[in-house]
Amino acid sequence: MLVVMKKDATPEQVQRVVETIERMGLVAHPIPGVQRVAIGITGNKGSLDPNTLECLDGVMEAIRVSKPFKQVSREWKTEDTVVNVGGVEIGGRGLVVIAGPCAVESYEQCVTIARAVKSAGATLLRGGAFKPRTSPYSFQGLGQEGLEILARVRDEVGLPVVTEALDPDGVGLVERHADMIQIGARNMQNFSLLKRAGKSKLPVLLKRGMSATIDELLLAAEYVVSEGNPNVVLCERGVRTFADHTRNTLDLSAVPAVKGLSHLPILADPSHGTGRRDNVVPMALASVAAGADGLIIEVHHRPETALSDGHQAILPDAFAGLMEQVRRLAPVMHRDLADAPTPASR
Ligand code: PEP
Ligand code: MN
Predict the structure, then answer these.
(1) pLDDT tens-digit profile of 225-237?
(2) Residue 161: per-residue pLDDT
(3) Domains in the chain, CATH or no CATH each
(4) Whose CA is nearest to atom 6 of ligand 1?
(5) Residues in contact with ligand 1 (CB, 6 Å cut-off)
(6) What is the C-alpha separation between 57 and 178, in angstroms, rounded?
(7) What SS3 class is residue 38?
């Protein structure tokens, strides 16, 4: 951290700041300038709160020079992290496409969609058994039964499964039935859930909160990693803005921003990111062009009957068309399309 003194700060005020820094067990390095004095601080292991120093007399501002997150940062680890999900690698050369319904509604629905997305080339199956709904009267998911359906469909179709846990107890249930734990946008800062996921052996798909900054997303990931689980995949899923032509604004600049700041893989979710079926394919392709490590796409064979998010689900045919375009776009990004795992690699 760097403390910048006001132009008219007195030597006594500078001295008081130096003493305060030293009392915190840190080392102060006063740097006299032509107009003002700055004081560099070294020796801090965690992050310092700038407010502690900004409230001292003569201080103009305290500026963080290092990021508040540690283990998820590129400084900590320069090479890209590759996360293995049931035999599928996320963050390597292969683009990973997670596809499936918003919610598991029945065995028939789930297996029909799973077969369709698998034959189009999807690498992982998604489907919520516990749904975080805005209204308590909306379909909340099949719960345990939904997890059992997912596990059965995974075994029959051969796609590893990603599903959401809403609370720490839910993590235990998801661990018994799925291959990856999803933490949704509404729970990005549910710290007890993050800590519980940090104790899991399963990889975590952490979605960006709808009003979270990139630093907040990376600090949420830091909660999981600092509890001992290094296998975190981030996901940009749109943020709230004034724009009302889409449900959310898919913030694709988050993808290169995260890539610069962190070694963790990042996916894009154009389904929740736009909330409109007709926007999903173009924004999926834009996500790949922006450097995302893969996509998460909601697909439904009868979206008009879907119990959640039918308006943004694309049909299996449209999904197959998208996969064809992703396959052609991948080499431009020096990538290819990841294969679904063979039974032996799972
Ligand atoms: C979902 O993936 O179905 C979901 C609820 O996503 P989000 O948490 O991004 O809204
Ligand atoms: Mn959904």
Answers:
(1) 999 999 999 999 9
(2) 98
(3) 2-63 (3.30.70.1140), 83-345 (3.20.20.70)
(4) 184
(5) 102, 128, 132, 184-186, 207, 237, 272
(6) 56
(7) strand
